[in-house]
Amino acid sequence: MKTHKPTTKSRRQMTHVTYRGVITKTEPEKSLTHGFRRSVGRNSQGRITTRHKGAGHKRLYREVDFLYNKKEIPAKIKSVEYDPNRSAFIGLAVYKDGEKRYVVLPKAVKVGETFIVSEKAELSVGNRLPLKNIPVGTFVYNIELKPRGGSKIGRSAGIFAQVVANADGYTNIKMPSSEVRKINENCWACIGVVSNEEHHLENYGKAGRSRWKGIRPTVRGTAMNPVDHPYGGGEGRQGRGTKRPKTMWGKVTGGRKTRHPKKYSNVFMVSRRKTGKSRKSQ
Fold it and tell me: Which residues constitute the domain of residue 46?
């Protein structure tokens, strides 16, 4: 992590990931980029479904390959690049037949190294195999939930899942959240840990840097009026005044299970993720 001299109040706390010596190219591959309009927390009807999102710096979208449908063809990493649309680093992979694709890079992979998508690939970092061919204890990322469905799990910076067991046509995967889940053994995954593992240590240092990234301010419930929030109102600083913590809309949070009892994927869950204060000590 890079720190700064405390020339201002915000500079004193500010940290960011050191890109020098990691990023090898500043301009993206033009054929793999296009403009796009970010959802900024809105659904298809234009209604806000996730608050505190909006504005931010304009971004160019990099077409990252999550399908990995070029099999048995080795590819070489030509460059390591920054992607404003995700926390991990991406790399420009050039396949032996000349095709170029962006891929999410694993930790410690450098320019010039190769990977391959194959059922008989070696168990080396970056290679992609079916889960049934990956031994127990291996760290994986870019995991499919359905065969040929594309990578859905383990794509953020520093994230990895672990193969726990193989039995009865399913592979048990321990997710980054600590949940253990059964996944079809014919789904594919990459070997290794996602790059940019220091991302979670970043301190923005000032409100403006959050705005650059499209994060809008969050107002505390206690600072609102009673009409706007269950915690609102009162003279001076007040406690929340309710037995259990609640959301802005009066829904109980902080301990109540919110998973639907008839959710389709319940049958694939071996053990739930650990939540609450006790998780810190586990």
Answer: 18-199
Count of domains observed in the chain: 1
pLDDT value at residue 277: 62
**252 within a domain of the structure (yes/no):** no
Q: Is it the case that residue 108 has pLDDT exceeding 90?
A: no
Task: Determine, yes or no, domain membership for 28.
Answer: yes
How is residue 216 annotated by DSSP? P
Cα distance between residue 154 and residue 120, in whole Å: 22
Q: Tell me the β-bridge partners of 171.
A: 166, 183
With 90 as the cut, is the pLDDT of residue 255 above it? no
Return the pLDDT at 104.
96
Report, as an integer, the average pLDDT of 52-77: 94
111's tokens: 């320019």
pLDDT at residue 224, rounded to an integer: 93
Q: What single DSSP character describes residue 236?
A: S
User: Residue type at 119?
Assistant: E
At 219 the pLDDT is 94
Q: Two tokens at 158?
A: 């520093």
Residue 76 within any structural domain of the chain: yes
Q: Where are the beta strands (DSSP E) in the chain?
A: 2-3, 15-16, 33-35, 60-62, 75-81, 90-95, 100-104, 114-115, 128-130, 139-141, 143-144, 151-153, 161-167, 170-174, 180-184, 188-191, 269-271
Give 276's DSSP letter. S
Cβ-proximal residues to 25 (8 Å cutoff; 6+ apart), any chain = 79, 80, 81, 92
Could you tell me if residue 210 is inside a domain?
no
Could you give the residue ranges of the DSSP H alpha helices within the chain? Answer: 9-13, 207-212
Measured distance CA(156)–CA(159) in Å, rounded: 6
The C-alpha R_g of the chain, in whole angstroms, comes to 22
User: What's the CA gap between 105 and 150, in Å, rounded?
Assistant: 16
